[in-house]
Amino acid sequence: MAQEQGDFPDGNDGLPCPEVRRWSETKYRLIGLYDELFATGMKNKWDQRVYVDLYSGAGCSKIMGTSTYLKGSPLIALTVDCPFEKYIFCEHEPELLDALKARVKRLAPSANVAYVLGNCDVEIDQICAEIPKGSAANKVLSLCMVDPFDFGIKFETIKRLSNFYMDFLVLLAVGMDAGRNYDHYVDGNSTKVDEALGNREWRERWKAVGIRKGDFRTFLAAEFSRSMESLNYLRQTVDRMKLVRSDDKNLPLYYLALFSRHQRAYKFWDDVLKYSTDQIDFGW
Question: Could you tell me which CATH number the domain at 1-147 has?
Fold first, then answer.
């Protein structure tokens, strides 16, 4: 049985541990649920399952103002009931990657893990080189976790990884970043949103829609889905993304969205969304 998501006592180990807000608990719970369904459901259908984390961090975090530690996405993936055959963790801060290595060694010493130091967009060649080559005799399916601090995703990186059989679980920080910097992105010279969406035409579509500024986050989430469709991923509507809000003012922060080329993955995701709403029990 996978370790329950939530408080992670082993995080208080003296190693670097970034602080996060309380709402990160929601994000990590959803990630844990999907990882479990994906890893278990795909175990006997593929020869190798690979987990790729583009923004791995230190492996755990501490809720600000509390003594509660949370497992980060790398450790969540390492502790599913049916572990992946390989893990690829990318992190640009050396001290955070060293902390992650130490925690992985302690928590999952036998796991097959490749570490990539550096910015995922810069080190994309190395990340791709670590993904096992698939064949008729060795079917490989990967799940990529994309959890940046802001709307700084580079769609070109996603496009490179989409050349593999790969699903994506993506945090779209359209409330935390894009919404707060609306004027800068829409009327300024910033190319940040262009790079995140992989096109420059989104501004014309936004202005043509003629809706209120408050709908900008929804528009960007839909535009990202549109970009994923251009890579032959199935349509993911905004209502099937999980909107995470702040605990204090209930402000919209980000969407957590799944993108896959297979309907089965969306069935898993629907189960996760149902759990997050209805608190059903998967029977783990």
Answer: 3.40.50
